[in-house]
Design goal:
With about 110 residues, this protein is an all-beta fold. The two termini are about 30 Å apart. The protein is built from no helices and 7 strands. A hairpin with a 5-residue loop joins strand 5 and strand 6. The chain is elongated, with a radius of gyration of 15 Å.
Amino acid sequence: PNRPFVLTHTWSNAAPPGGDKITLTTTLDLRSQPTREVGSVQYDILFDPAVLRPDSVRAGDFEDVTSNLRNRGAALIGATSFSAARYSGLLTASRTYFTVLGGDGAVAAT
């Protein structure tokens, strides 16, 4: 019962060329505690603004997502349920869409 919940980010393309549109899918893994349920999750995605520009965020399994993409180099994201819905298991929290600004070979750690 002391295992942490795991938040994972997965790129749609790990090495896209400049100008491409890419997606960062964020998942929340609650399977280590199958009886636990959540109604919301909040997290930040940090990135190199010379390489990536955030365009938008869409909700995954949660009913709604709120984001602040105005901070240079950071996307602040909250995914939530406004109803009584609670979630468990492996969840897609959100999908964040970026445009690649850097040239071929540029690297952005998140």
